[in-house]
Amino acid sequence: MIRGMKTGEAASARRPALWACVAALVLAFAATNSEAQQPAPARLRIVGGLASVSQYTLHEERFWSKDLVRLSGGKYSASIVPFNQAGVPGQEMLNLMRLGVIPFGTALLSQVSNEFPELGTPDIAGLNPDMPTMRRVTAAFRPYLEKTLRERHGVELLAVYVYPAQVIFCKQPVKQLSDLAGRRIRVSGTSQADFVRALNAVPVFTEFAEIMANMSSANTECAITGAMSGNTLGLHKVTSSLYTMPINWGLAAFGANTDAWNALPPDLKALLKSELPKLETAVWEESERDTGNGISCNTGAATCMKGTKGAMVEARPSPNDERRMREIFAASVLPRWVQRCGTVCAQAWDQTVGPVVGIKAPVGQ
Asked: Who's near 22: CB < 8 A, 6+ residues apart?
């Protein structure tokens, strides 16, 4: 059993009332969503990814609410609700799935890694400067993720989703990383905070829904978030400079409680095993498009689609900044991550991602 598992089990024991409420909310939402549909012989309940983003609205929701019925000839159907509209605490998703409270769910690795930090290995801030690297790193980590989820959490991994690149919106001009020194920058996770501190800037932990309020109150001068999601929030109206270096991306694991998965009819399991990789591919392609489209919309380019045109000035990372990003990752972000997590993370790194990027986990942390 890995470090943190006992903590998770203890936390589970302390929060039965919360999870009972969560289960009720999920069931109620699913029932509401399905009232207008004809019941099918077997109906799955799915807790999906983030609401409103294209990865959910164009792909996850369509697959479960429409495509499954068609692909199964009407034999199987499903209802889906995004986790952040169902009252499901993102950091508790794996525990809820392990207990069977949520039979099929989507766990954001950045959130569950607060309790199980080794699961955040493939998306540490500063690790993946582009989508091709993100793909290689994720492929290298996937066998470890599958084994860990199955053996330690009782979850069968069925798909890995990615969200668009997390870039930097700033009120004042930014042309290079050194311009960020001294600024207060919104971050969503610990490794982002490590990256910001290495720039001699000040990380400000802020929930996504609170970004605009913080920017308007001058509590933050810059914000790290997705290019398109930032546009949706309206960040292009309160910031002027978009520094398009991907700080990180955002990975989510979609899986099933092992008992729930094993109880499925064989033909349904075969169908999902065949079709979910296609859904995964579509989500990755959408995220890559959204990264570019978000930049186009924020800067007012003619190629803007789905978003609102702004007038931001784009600053692309120079070769010097790309080199500095790698140096910050190797000298600061990775060592601090290993220091917090310990041997488990060092071993996971050296067995999976380290050989792909040519960096060994630091020793003696």
From this structure: 86, 87, 88, 89, 92, 96, 101, 102
Identify the CA nearest to 298 among candidates 222, 245, 240. 240
Residues 167-186: tens digit of each pLDDT: 999 999 999 999 999 999 99
**C-alpha–C-alpha distance, residues 327 and 144, integer Å:** 26
**Calpha distance 275→271 (Å, rounded):** 6
Domains of the chain (ranges plus CATH)? 5-164+250-292 (3.40.190.170), 166-248+300-357 (3.40.190.170)
User: Nearest 5°: CA angle at 104, between 98 and 106?
Assistant: 90
User: Residue 200, class by beta-carbon neighbours within 10 Å (0-12 exposed, 13-18 middle, 19+ buried)?
Assistant: exposed
The pLDDT tens digits for 143-156 are 999 999 999 999 99
Q: What is the pLDDT of residue 4?
A: 39
Could you tell me which of 124, 185, 179 has the C-alpha nearest to residue 333? 124
Give the pLDDT confidence score for residue 364 in this predicted structure.
Answer: 60
CB 346 within 8 A of CB 336: no
Cα-trace Rg, the chain: 21
Edge-to-edge strands, sheet with 251-257: 76-82, 42-48, 104-108, 251-257, 155-162
What three-state secondary structure class fits 241? Answer: strand
Q: What is the pLDDT of residue 39?
A: 40
Looking up tokens 């972000």 gives 333
Query: Length of the chain, please?
Result: 365
Q: How far, in Å, CA of 201 to CA of 62, rounded?
A: 41
For 42-72, the pLDDT digits (tens) are: 799 999 998 878 899 999 999 999 999 999 9
Dihedral through CA 323, CA 170, CA 190, CA 201, nearest 10? 70
- Within 234-318, where are the H helices? 235-238, 258-262, 266-298
CB 144 within 8 A of CB 152: no
Intervals of the chain under pLDDT 70: 1-41, 364-365
Q: What is the pLDDT of residue 306?
A: 84
